[in-house]
């Protein structure tokens, strides 16, 4: 865990190397999609700050628990390496204010709440953009942000079923649908988010360079 003042005032974390060194990422993520996406950014040198609920990311209790440290399962440790972390109750005004102060010091926000939740809490795009107009904001959801299925709770195996992946993997004898047991949809989504963020950062830098050149 990191100190609130260090995070909210933009003090850098440990010196990092890599193509994303110098960029700061704020993650409101649970389970695998958002955490894995930001983990990859951290692997490339970004300073990733993870905001967890007071009870902690539920991924902490998933998978192999042989680390010897409570709530530090193997899946959690793998998906959250190279990060600083702070636990906040975003329903509390002072904690929400702290989260927004941190957001104002970040280049990118990544969250995987259900559609509408981030806006309702007060950490949606509009709130973040008021603090930093050029912020890159990523919302990850399972079935889009509108339509009859938008508010449905979605996990990897649900999307495997909807997308037909489970049917393609059907048992040769019984024909029963079978899911791929490696969270393939979550991981593929994380890869897409990772690439989209790096592309957005590149586009933003080019826009700045173009504006600077035009002003000369």
Automatic annotation (TrEMBL):
Keywords: Transferase. The keyword Cell membrane does not apply. Gene3D superfamilies: Crotonobetainyl-coa:carnitine coa-transferase, domain 1. InterPro entries: CoA-transferase_III_domain, CoA-Trfase_fam_III, CoA-Trfase_III_dom_1_sf. This is CoA transferase. Pfam families: CoA_transf_3. It comes from Sphingomonas bisphenolicum. The keyword Transferase applies.
